[in-house]
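Technical annex B. To support the medicinal chemistry partners, we prepared a structural model of the target in complex with zinc ion, based solely on the information shown next.
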Amino acid sequence: MKLNSIKVLSFLLLTSLGVAGCATNPVTGKNEIMLVSEDWELNVGKQYYSPLRQQQGGDYTADPAVEEYVRQVGQRLAAQSDRDLPYEFNVINDSTPNAWALPGGKISINRGLLVQLKDEAELAAVLGHEIVHSAAKHGAKGQSRGVLLQGAVAAATIVGNSKGYGQAAQLGSSIAAQLTNQKYGRAAELESDLYGMRYMAKAGYDVQGAVGLQETFVRLSEGRRNDFITNLFASHPPSQERVAKNRQTAVALGAGGERGEARYAKAMARIKKMAPAYQKFDEARAAHKENNLKKAVSLTKQAINMEPKEGHFHSFLGDISIQTNNMKAAKVYFDRAVKLNPNFYYYQVRRGEVNQRRGAVSAARADYQRSLKLMPTAEAQYGLGIIERDAGNTKVAKEMLSGAAQSTGDIGKKATNALLKLDLGDNPGNYLIVNRGLTSKGTFAFQLINKTSSPLAGIKLGVTMNGNKSTSNISGTLGAGETRIIDTGRSMSKAQADAVQVIVLGAVVAQ
Ligand SMILES: [Zn+2]
């Protein structure tokens, strides 16, 4: 059952691709054709880093020291990079073992991968590898091949309840898939392994960490179903070839360096200890998918007992409370979630909805506005549009509703209808088309086309004929999408008919 899905609006890539030309790869020193400029890389990183993290579950905040630790390890490696970029590192609150890099030095690792790693050297191997993807413009090369970001990107759908925040339903076309699951290709993977290990060595890490990491990946991939692994390491497919190559590289680079086992164990103590809580949560979501709400609630409460600081758990109980129409309880759960992580859009959108339904309009407005700053969603735009409409702020209301109207599904339809009612009086000609011409009998006729999905009535036309202005009221209702010919019965020549001007003066949505 798909419940309360949130539509994430399209992001338009506003940056141009820059100028094509030959350039030296800053990592490998090879001369290669680049179809994108450095500005493009920096802009893509800047523009998509935050919304992609939001889309995939937000940052992991239950133990803020984890993200801080990952940042330190990341910056230690970035300092050894052949390319100076505004590197950033964060931990995404998602159980899938994965990591990705955007052009321009923006790197993410999932909570689910951190729990699989043995020591800091393995973490350094992951981050070093991602740094090379970014520094060596592997993503930009994908763009050169026309693989990613073909102008406007299709809207992605996030299903908050059953599939998790991270699982965009339309992965195939979504920007998340294109940017974070793109296959770099075998050559780029090997290049990232090689130079990543060099950065590790320079930063003082034991490069055996990269060998161990690949072995772990191969082991994980062998134990899994094919479709699972396809999603899991889509961007960095593990292989025996990579294990073998990393072994060779390790021999060439020599032994030594630190593994940071104790430091890693200390930093990951909470995240590893809490792994069973996240398992309970996964089970809760599975139970919810099978409509077993009681079991879903019970399992989530068990998860909260183990890890009270995870906002997703509280938010999930909030979702279920909305589903069972208990807005009072929902408010309490979303309050807790927002308090635990005020920077995750989903909690704010949902609390906005709860506040709106409880009549707490100004609280709802504030929630929606904050959520929109974090991530544009059709739900927040629609909710805010209705609030502003009711407050008489027609301009903002129209802006919000037209944004939401672009999304597909229920919310898009609701927004379109609300916008229609609001805008029809001002711009009837945008919704109702009127043409004029002669019938086969040579009589003058109007053709009316209702472009909307609502029946329209009270249609008033302004007609100018031989310099005389008149109005004409069309009786009855014009159905949704209906085209109607209204024959005036008056004979005239084609030239006379062409000289008639007609505009739509007014219409209302029929009740
Ligand atoms: Zn890779």
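Notes passed to the chemistry partners:
Residues 129, 133, 184, 189, 192, 235-236 surround zinc ion (CB under 6 Å).
The radius of gyration is 29 Å.
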